Predict the 3D structure of the following.
Amino acid sequence: MHATLPALPSPAPLPASLGMLALLLRLGGNLLALGRRRRLCILTYHRVLAQPDPLLGGEIDLASFRWQMQLLAKGFTVLPLAEALQRLRQNRLPPRAVSITFDDGYRSVHTLALPVLQQLGLPATVFATTGFVEHGSMWNDRILHAVRRLPADAHDWQALGLPQELLPSAPDLRHDPDARTHLATLLDAHVKYLAPAERQRVIETLERHAGPVGQADQANQADQDLMLDHDMLLALAQAGVEIGGHTTSHPILSRLDDAQARHEICDNKAALEAILGRRLRLFAYPNGKPGLDYDQRHVAMVRGAGYEAAFTTAGGSAGPEHDCYQIPRGRPWDRRPLMFGLRLLRWLARPGA
């Protein structure tokens, strides 16, 4: 069974306020481009939510994603990532150059983001993991779903697997309305940097204390059917979305030995190339903080795997000073159009976040 591309709705008119802001951003961006070498702003998204979710406050909802894309379409020059890199090297970037990327390979990129991108004629790149294609979920989503299921009287945090140093700040699920969000944040930050076996142990302990998935949870189960499947990957590629590598299981590469890290990089590339029937050109480091989440060993592995470029999460804009295997990207945190647009202009004006 093949995934069908989402139907394209009729383009919605740009709200007048966004139209005026887009005009001002174009003017400001054009002025910034005068008399200086132009830079590239690469935006990073992960999933797109149908509705806001308090446990996923860092992820964008569909309504916000739509106005951000509308503002990019009218106020900036959105380029395919590979083309943008070529233009950057050749000093041929247009003013206000932006590229759009998605990390991890969530299926909401296909079901929610793609129709908006197609409606507005915007290109994008998806950096996909392959360990969760067709089944399962990433470790962070398993944490979220377990935290949602924890009983309100849960308080034995040490039994849940929280280390001693986190216990004083563990929340009270009975009296704190933001407790689950706080607990999910604590666990995510802690578990992220554990060795894979220890990470699995902590998550399984949390899941046992959360209890089995109830029937009422089935319709909204956070760890079911979250990731792209084979057919969706193919459909995205057929729609013109470039697919890039992002490792098999999304580990912190610096926490693996060299053999494990090389397998994560190379096996992911081979799996995606087998699905797509084409060579992958681009790679994004999981988590992507230079010197913390990866180092020069992994840069060499990515180059040796045959990738042409690789991307970090260092923030700010890309310029001629950047190594083509450590190109920065920024995450657009702003939820108001004016601040979103001004942040992009600031990134385009100078290096650094």
Notes: The longest strand covers residues 97-104.
